[in-house]
Task: inverse folding
């Protein structure tokens, strides 16, 4: 919450914390948490009621989708810090912010496509032929190369690095 701004007059476009929570599909406590992290801002009426600019809905939507994709809130904040709050936001603002995520989103998409392809193969083959299985790892040979799902992540990481 921004305490540096003096109370403003309520306008029809402003939302109470309850209205924003209902519209965004989150709990009021979630909005308070997002605000404590600086993801959204509110202001206070002369009666000390918390109000939000309606444009906060978009910011909350970005946060919720990013969380669904497993993106840490600190990274979400780094992106949203590039988008002005409480002012008109243009296409260029959102494009500049999204550029921060572009490479990571591309990497995740490639990994998801690879996972889908491998799972399609596994479900189709039923593991009847270990000689043809792209995931077969006799004697755990890949364990010597390090931890994790090496065959799924290496190709994606190699492609991202090139």
Result:
């Amino acid at each position: 919450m921004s305490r540096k701004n003096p109370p403003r007059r309520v306008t029809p476009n402003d939302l109470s914390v309850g209205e924003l929570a209902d519209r965004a599909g989150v709990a009021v406590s979630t909005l308070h948490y997002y605000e404590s992290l600086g993801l959204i801002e509110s202001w206070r009426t002369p009666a000390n009621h918390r109000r939000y600019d309606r444009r906060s809905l978009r910011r909350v939507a970005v946060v919720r989708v990013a969380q669904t994709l497993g993106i840490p809130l600190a990274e979400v904040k780094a992106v949203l810090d590039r988008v002005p709050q409480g002012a008109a936001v243009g296409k260029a603002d959102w494009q500049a912010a999204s550029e921060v995520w572009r490479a990571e989103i591309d990497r995740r998409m490639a990994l998801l496509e690879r996972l889908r392809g491998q799972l399609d193969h596994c479900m189709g083959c039923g593991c009847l032929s270990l000689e043809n299985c792209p995931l077969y790892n006799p004697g755990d040979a890949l364990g010597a190369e390090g931890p994790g799902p090496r065959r799924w992540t290496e190709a994606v990481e190699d492609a991202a690095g090139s």
Remarks:
- The longest helix spans residues 91-125.
- The mean pLDDT is 80.
- The CA atoms of residues 18 and 44 lie 14 Å apart.
